[in-house]
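W.,

You were right to be curious about this one. When I first looked at the sequence I had no strong expectations either way, so I just let the prediction run and decided to look at it fresh. Below is the sequence, 432 residues in total, followed by the output.
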Amino acid sequence: MGGFVFDLDQNPIGSGDSFTTKVPRLTLTPRGVALLAACGYLPKISEEDILDKSKSDNVSKLLSVLQALWMLAQTISRLYSNLPITLLEVNTLAHIICAIIIYALWWNKPKLINEPTKIQGNWVPPIAAYMFMSSQISGWKRVKPGILKKDWIDPEFSILAFDCPSSQKSHLTAVAPCPLHGKPSTSNTLSTTIRAVPTMRALTDTGSFIKRPSAAFNSSGVLLDAVLSTIDSRLESSGDLQANRWALAAEAVMLYPAIASRIICRESIQDREVIRWFEPTVEELVDDTIGNWATGNLLRAMSGFVMGMVVWSASMAYGGVHATAWGGHFPSRIEALLWRASSICIAGSGLTWILINLLARTFPWFKAYWKQVETLRAHWTSLISLGCLASLCGLAYLLARIYLVVESFISLRNLPAAVFDTVEWTQLVPHL
């Protein structure tokens, strides 16, 4: 398991700081660790402790890398000597390159860690409460229309706003300036009187979390005070736990500038008045457990564009290596054409993804259009066309990957005689 955790059932202060009964332990995500470091509480772990957790020694890693390099050296030698290589060797070579890169990046990576690093201290409850309320583990499921995600878990922060006394507002406005619509208002017909969001009861001396104002107005723009309750039926039923959780999270906002910078100022115009409130940013900071693969929207939370660039660049490289056998020996012409088409399909899929994201980052109009497509708000002709195209491309990619593996083996039925020749110098080097 490993990682950094908050043990909620081992609170050093006492039961008065309990804020949830959902889970006994919270595991920090990469963003949670970054926020903890920004608050100045990242534990110092020595290199000896990291090496002690590694269950794989350098000798076994070195032997694996040497075997992979030997295969790579043989392939390069055969090409230099104008000797043919089989499609199985090409397929193996693509995986060898990936393996060498992984070993280089993960050489000192701990493996098979059973126990995590526990984070303890009197400062834990406020930060843990804030991270809990920001993450999906605190929320409830609902259906959200869209192509990429239909089932969504709304964190507790998704319905809350932060309010604090006027004397404390400078603590937030310093990090979250809030001019009207991004510019100072110069209109003579609009009253710019700012009235505070009403709070049902103060949970702390310096600030509190309340229901968002956007959920506190009906269709006629009338303020519904009854909606501004400190208890919400979608959240945990225990009022004391919820009130304590909100108070602890509000304390974290006022204590740590790194957390205060995540409170965004929002505005809404109601009856010619500007309603201003502070809205917490929703981030996936903690979870009950963290697996080896980023799930539960963690991949998008960890700079999805960068992660996508790495994944799809690897796909381009994988297809490119198989394309090196373009003029190689194939049992039939059909198999040669299918191999070339599969290589282009795999490499082209990565290139297409990168181009789409680059266009979205370069041209705002394209980003807006793509957002409409993802949320199923684009014209039906665009949705049908792109849906069919995406389905065909996905099916083609799957079939291409399967074909490259299958063809690598069935091509062994018809090989040129030179395949069985060896490079002379390779016989003089002892190897496994």
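Here's what jumped out at me. The chain has a mean pLDDT of 74. And, maybe more interesting for your project: The longest helix spans residues 380-410.

Coffee later to discuss?

I.
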